[in-house]
Specification:
Blueprint: E1 3-12, E2 17-25, E3 31-35, H1 42-56, H2 64-73, H3 81-102, H4 106-109, E4 117-123, H5 132-144, E5 149-152, H6 164-181, E6 186-190, H7 197-207, E7 214-216, H8 224-233, E8 238-240, H9 247-255, E9 261-262, H10 272-284, E10 288-289, H11 298-309, E11 317-320, E12 330-331, E13 336-337, E14 340-342, E15 352-353, H12 355-360, H13 373-376
Parallel strand pairs: 4-11, 5-6, 6-7, 7-8, 8-9, 9-10
Antiparallel strand pairs: 1-2, 2-3, 4-14, 12-15, 13-14
Helix pairs in contact: 1-3, 2-3, 5-6, 7-8, 9-10, 10-11
């Protein structure tokens, strides 16, 4: 069996487009699916997949290690979000093909299951909101849906520095959310990697009283030494890693002791096996895994579930609650109960693309400015 063709499918999901990958085999009926979503740069990823396809046509799809290395090494220019995202989508699809051909779910090929279900934390639940009271009301509604862990960015549109008024507004949002949901719900505070070191330290000290589960990307992601400085200054666990793209970058992060919780993104680090490798490095350093999902779609979530089920240090997985039809893009849908997602047991990834839903949401030109008020508190009424 050989790889015959590779194609992409795009789905507009409000403020970004999901990119799904299909790898076709020459036996006529075996198709593997993966995800290569990278908000703002979808067309760049699609073009890169077309370039990589030339390295793969006619090759054995079961040689995942060989083909993944070829995609990484042969282009000469290595790493970065665009190339790694393109590789990730194809790599997931190759695992889907291999497991389907053997009639087993992907997690069986990764060593079997450590966990039958994976705990989720909710993100996107406060989109469009600004006041502390709105945050609190939305938090309560989300907890009533079964989620016992919530992540949110309370810091407005601050960039590197934060003024006292904005800081107090942020603290008030955290305060009222904590009061309303109680101590039994985990709160993860997101900073989107935009503060300088002194500001991040100041914020960490200010939010320590609220039993924060982690402080995420407190500083700009380009200098991990500064991340270490923040970690040394606080008793709040530090989470980071969504903007690292290779195992080599994660090795530096772990060996320097910069984080308590690792957040690699399966769509950006090279796919399923690379996420598994990063998890092994994290385990050696007593670091827990909480993979980033961010703007990605449900195929990457399912791929993460397979990896998370196979590792002993899988802590929790991100789940966006921003789009009502998110789970309908695939079938069967991900089973989510009481804040946990169950790992699919059908062959391959265990899911297929729902073409009808995909066709209802064609590609639209979208662009997100991270520091724009339209991003930070965009209206969710158009979903």
């Amino acid at each position: 069996m050989k790889i015959k063709d590779i194609d992409t499918v795009t789905v507009n999901a409000y403020w970004r487009n999901w990119v799904f990958v299909k790898v076709y085999c020459d036996n006529g009926d075996l198709v593997g699916i993966g995800e290569a979503s990278l908000e703002n740069f979808e067309q760049s990823v699609i073009a890169t997949i077309k370039h990589l396809k030339r390295l793969l046509i006619g090759e054995d799809p079961f040689n995942i290690e060989l083909l993944t290395r070829r995609m990484y090494v042969y282009p000469f220019w290595r790493g970065g979000p665009v190339l790694q995202t393109a590789i990730s989508g194809i790599e997931m699809a190759l695992w889907d093909i291999l497991a389907k051909s053997l009639g087993v779910p992907v997690f069986r090929l990764l060593g079997g299951r450590c966990h039958e279900k994976i705990r989720l934390y909710a993100n996107g639940w406060c989109s469009g909101l600004a006041s502390a009271e709105e945050f609190a009301e939305a938090a309560v509604k989300t907890v009533k849906k079964g989620f016992k862990a919530l992540k949110f960015d309370p810091f407005g549109i601050s960039d590197q520095l934060i003024d006292e008024k904005t800081l107090q507004e942020a603290i008030n949002r955290i305060h009222v959310v904590r009061e309303e949901v109680g101590e039994h719900v985990d709160l993860m505070i997101e900073a989107h990697g935009r503060f300088n070191t002194s500001t991040a330290k100041k914020i960490a000290k200010a939010i320590e009283a609220y039993n924060v589960a982690w402080f995420e990307e407190p500083v700009l992601p380009d200098n991990i030494k500064q991340l270490l400085e923040v970690k040394k200054s606080t008793n709040i666990p530090i989470a980071a890693g969504e903007r690292l793209y290779t195992r080599y970058e994660f090795w530096r992060l772990f060996s320097m002791g910069c984080v308590d919780i690792a957040q690699p993104d399966i769509c950006h680090v090279g796919g399923i096996m690379e996420l598994k490798r990063i998890a092994a490095m994290a385990e050696v350093n007593y670091i827990m895994m909480a993979p980033h999902i961010g703007g990605n779609g449900p195929i990457s979530t399912v791929a993460c579930l397979h990896v998370m089920s196979s590792i002993p240090n899988g802590m929790i997985l991100e789940h966006f609650v921003d789009i009502p039809w998110r789970n309908e893009v695939i079938y069967p849908q991900i089973k989510i109960e009481d804040g946990y997602a169950y790992v699919p047991e059908n062959p391959g990834l265990g899911i297929e693309i729902n073409e009808e839903i995909v066709n209802d949401h064609p590609y639209k030109d979208s662009y997100i400015d991270l520091y724009s008020p339209n991003y930070r508190y965009h209206s969710s009424t158009t979903l």
